[in-house]
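User: Let's play a game. I give you a shape written as tokens, and you guess the letters that built it. Ready? Here's round one.
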């Protein structure tokens, strides 16, 4: 077993004028995520909800990305780049990141 980092990123799909389509998401995966994590990744479409600053429940589609990777500065920088590019390109306020230390074996 080896110790790795498991990152789960939640990318909201709603935006002011429509939503991020499955095709746009796949293009983003192919052009921005895969080159930074060529060793592998898993992603899927999900339905989620969150409370805004007034307590109103907002429901929206999302895309979830799961990455298992070494705990390196390069990978940390890559995740920052991915989330920043997505936020800017798709008019998002944030991308939720859940980070865990895990033991993995192949």
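Assistant: Ready! My guess for every position:
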């Amino acid at each position: 077993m080896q110790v790795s980092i498991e990152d789960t990123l939640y990318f909201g799909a709603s935006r002011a004028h429509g939503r991020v389509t499955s095709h746009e998401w796949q293009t983003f995966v192919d052009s921005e995520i895969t080159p930074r994590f060529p060793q592998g990744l898993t992603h899927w479409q999900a339905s989620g909800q969150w409370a805004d600053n007034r307590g109103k429940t907002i429901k929206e589609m999302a895309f979830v990305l799961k990455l298992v990777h070494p705990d390196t500065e390069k990978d940390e920088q890559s995740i920052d780049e991915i989330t920043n590019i997505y936020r800017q390109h798709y008019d998002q306020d944030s991308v939720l990141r859940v980070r865990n230390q895990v033991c993995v074996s192949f």
